Amino acid sequence: ACSGSDDVASPVTLVTYESFPTEGTRINELLDEFTAETGIDVEILVAGDTGTMLSKAELTAGNPEGDVMWGIDSTFISRAIASEIFEPYGADGLDAIPDALTELVPNGEATPVDFGDVCVNYDVAALEALSIDPPTSLDDLADPRYQDLLVVQNPATSSPGLAFQLATIDEYGEDGWQEYWTRLVDNGVAVVDGWTAAYYEQFSYAGGDRPLVVSYGSSPPFEVLFAETELDAAPTGVVESTCYRQVEFAGILAGTEKQAAARELVDFLITTEFQEALPLDVFVFPANGDAALDPVFEQYAVIPEVSREIDPAVIDQNRETWIDEWTDLVVG
Question: Which residues pair with 252 in a beta bridge?
């Protein structure tokens, strides 16, 4: 056990989103090793999708549910900073993280831990069975050929849902995206609250009846790795032109009584060893530039040469308006 202050010896709570593994993965083994080395127990608290997690953190700002939060992404980071949920900290090991990621948090409000792309995925076999070619653009998704085939997430409650909405704003502009969404609605788009419901309940590859889903550029290697029988090709594909880049952060929650332990945990989260476990356990790319990628990930994951991005400050100024407009158009 750790012989330091109570601050370090007591458990730290890592607040995270619904797709973060709570047991049985390399990540969880590494957190146990962290405990063995430091005496700091890590308890994982799952707080729903990213939007839900942030809303809870805002309500408890200064008196947080936990000590470190994992998973606020670049579509939400400016809101998190404005809400002062994080305590700035310059993590040990930050020099291994590229400037393009750290520039999103210029005052060290949080630490970049991974990145990935939210993209439309398709079920290869299901589209073949329908004799339909995979879509190649956002515009295609509103075409009658793809009627009733797409499921998306609600941007008010879901991080990938918001990323997909931002991709459409990037494509059609602040005055044109609304008309595009009207076309999607007319074309039978389905909307659910979060990624899990979209992928595991509605997506045809997981047993649903919709062969198009908003997911991640890293979903195909996931399907290869966890297939019940060995696959020589990914069963799902990615529509690269739809991809929107997300960077995820870990931050120390303002008001934690375990600041020293929280800092040690954040330092650990960007170590090369922990970062190398991320792709296969959380299906994101490591922020640490020294971390090597697993060969399966290298082969099957999609990292577009150019991803869509909107300045976090612009998102912050417009997010609520955009989500309200989306809700009026799509949910009614």
Answer: 68, 87
Say what percent of the chain tops pLDDT 90: 79
Structure tokens at 223: 């399907």
Close Cβ partners of 76 (under 8 Å, ≥ 6 residues apart): 50, 51, 54, 159, 162
Distances (CA, A) of 265 to 67, 109, 218, 250: 10, 15, 26, 10
DSSP strand pairing (86-87 vs 212-216):
unpaired
144 versus 304: which is more confidently predicted?
144
Q: 179: buried, middle or exposed (CB in 10 Å: 19+, 13-18, 0-12)?
A: exposed
pLDDT at 1 over 70: no
How far is residue 212 from each of residues 94, 122, 159, measured CA to CA in Å? 38, 5, 18
Lowest mean pLDDT among 45-54, 121-130, 162-171, 244-253: 45-54
* Cβ density class 104-141: b for 16+ within 10 Å, e for less: bbeeebbbbbbbbbbbbbbbbebbeeeeeebbeebebb
Query: Which one of 94-98, 103-107, 220-224 scores highest in mean pLDDT?
Result: 94-98
The mean pLDDT value for 193-220 works out to: 95
Residues 37 and 196: their CA atoms lie apart, in Å, by 34
Run of H or E including 36: helix 26-38
Give the chain's radius of gyration (CA, Å). Answer: 20
